[in-house]
Amino acid sequence: MIVEVMGGKSSKETTQRHFPSYSSPSFSHQPYPQSPYPQQHPNHTPRHHHAPAPYEHGGHTHHKNRKLEKKFSIISDDYQTLEQVTDALAQAGLESSNLIVGIDFTKSNEWTGSRSFNHRSLHHLGSGLNPYEQAISIIGKTLSAFDEDNLIPCFGFGDASTHDQEVFGFDPEERYCNGFEEVLRRYREIVPHLKLSGPTSFAPVIEMAMSIVEESGGQYHVLLIVADGQVTRSVDTAHGKVGPQEQNTIDAIIKASEYPLSIILVGVGDGPWDTMREFDDNIPCRAFDNFQFVNFTEIMSKNVDPLRKQTEFALSALMEIPSQYKATLELSILGFALYVLLIRRTWLLLAGIRLAVIVENTSVHVPFAAHQSKPE
């Protein structure tokens, strides 16, 4: 029997977290004006990143033997402070995590704050924090206790330079932000120079997150996506069908369940959110329930104490993290990568000619190359 390894990629051993190194045309060098760091050229641009897709869209991988029931433990909501939520996460078994942030810069941000943000763009910069900044700040404060190096990869998507195909990094030097405070600072420097566009797809940022997990050697990560609305659905899409952006996002979420990666989608603005709830509850074929949707606007509009609202939002966003982390342990994907093996069987024919026939594709998890070598 001949076994050929298909897919997967080597991960570099590094002492610092940094943008994955790709010789890819997605690393755009087009001028992209933004507020620079000192001594930088005024037109220095954050690089555009488009992670090489670790799979082909539409190629669903089934894991009947590994799929878990939705039996995740729920953390009680009887908390009064963010510190209590953090303690509860630690007690539930979360040992460490690395935060990745993805921000939606699609044009719909200009009007989806009509009711919830006083007719202003959701990216409006004022003396107070806008919804994006609030969400990043609250989640960042809560998860920072579990992030050993405090380095946060941050990406934008959906603007005029990336559309639904790429992401761009927040830092012009291609390094990660040092803490959520720098995330917020870089966000404020970038926003005034962005041209919002579209369409909306979460696939590129999810794919980038998977690549970062691989680069880390399979460490557990949490991808925080903050977005103003649903994935773009074409008016030509028939009822009961999904459009290309929806299908790409669904495929990415399914593929991400093969990685030690949790996805939290925070919805800001007026919505609607029905498709996001479908993503949360009804995507089949996942190795584990890796996606959590939280309606930021609904929680923060409640007539209760502001600190209580922050705590409720943090809890709603993070309450499945402990069980998702445990699922990665049960599935043996923490520190492991999925490789698809093509199994060939060989038969002896007349005149000594051998015929190799592909019998089936199968999936197996093997240690990340950053820790051990690939199977031969």
TrEMBL record:
GO terms for biological process: protein ubiquitination. It comes from the Eukaryota. SMART domains: VWA (SM00327). This is VWFA domain-containing protein. GO terms for cellular component: nucleus. Residues 18-42 have a biased composition (Low complexity). GO terms for molecular function: ubiquitin-protein transferase activity. Residues 1-65 are annotated as: Disordered. Residues 96-299 form the VWFA domain.
